[in-house]
Amino acid sequence: FSQNAIQRVGAAGGVRVTMPEGTLTTGELVSTDGGTTWAASGRSTLRRNDASRQEQYELSADYLLYDTSCQRALARGAVSASFQRAGEPGILLSAESCELDIAQQTLSISGGLRVSQDQLSVVCGALTADLEHQRLNATEAPQLEYGKYRLTLQAQSIAVDLELQQALYRMQPKAPAKK
């Protein structure tokens, strides 16, 4: 074997990779850099438990790229994810595209997405999130739904603090009246 041959690793059919704090399951998995980055195709799920923060993450998609050194995951196609912190309601999301930075605890999501916690949901075209502080910033036609009060709010952008379940928003400017 050459050193380059060892750099290229692939597996197919019910693949499961176990890491110190989680697992990756997929239909097919390829690494071209000796295992630093992994490309998973077919329905793939990355699960991670962070015992020191008492948090659990799960990210599933049709295509998943995971960088072990940077602790970043990029997901495309029918993305679903969950984030759970001990003693708090979990956060669920669905979208077409998602980038998760595990080290920084941030999410960037786009494409017909929905994020929910308890009775609070945000539906929009794009969203960034700070998971550590449970804050979301939704743009591209965001809509906030609060099931308890049957409230729906639309605005130019919506910021949500899920820890306090408070929503701050800037109203869309009204178009000037036609003369």
Can you describe what's shown?
The chain is an all-beta fold. The protein is 3% helix and 66% strand. It has one helix spanning 3-7; strands at residues 9-19, 22-31, 37-50, 55-67, 72-85, 91-101, 106-117, 120-130, 135-139, 143-146, 151-154, 157-161, 166-170. Strands 1, 2, 3, 4, 5, 6, 7, 8, 9, 10, 11, 12 and 13 form a 13-stranded antiparallel sheet that branches. A hairpin with a 4-residue loop joins strand 6 (91-101) and strand 7 (106-117). The longest helix is centred in the N-terminal third of the chain and has 5 residues, at 3-7. It is elongated, with a radius of gyration of 19 Å. Mean pLDDT is 82; it is low at 166-175.
Please name the defining characteristics of this protein.
mainly beta; 13-stranded antiparallel β-sheet; 1 helix; 13 strands
Quick structural overview:
The chain has 1 helix and 13 strands. With 179 residues, it is mainly beta.
Name the beta content range: over 45%
Helix-strand string: HEEEEEEEEEEEEE
- What Rg do the Cα atoms give? 19 Å
Helical content band: under 10%
**Cα distance spanning the termini:** 78 Å
Describe the biggest sheet?
Answer: 13 strands, antiparallel
Task: Give a count of the beta strands, DSSP E runs of length 2 or more.
Answer: 13
The helix-and-strand class reads: mainly beta
Shape: elongated
- How many helices? The count is 1
Which residues sit in consecutive blocks of at least 5 with pLDDT less than 50?
166-175
Average pLDDT for all residues: 82
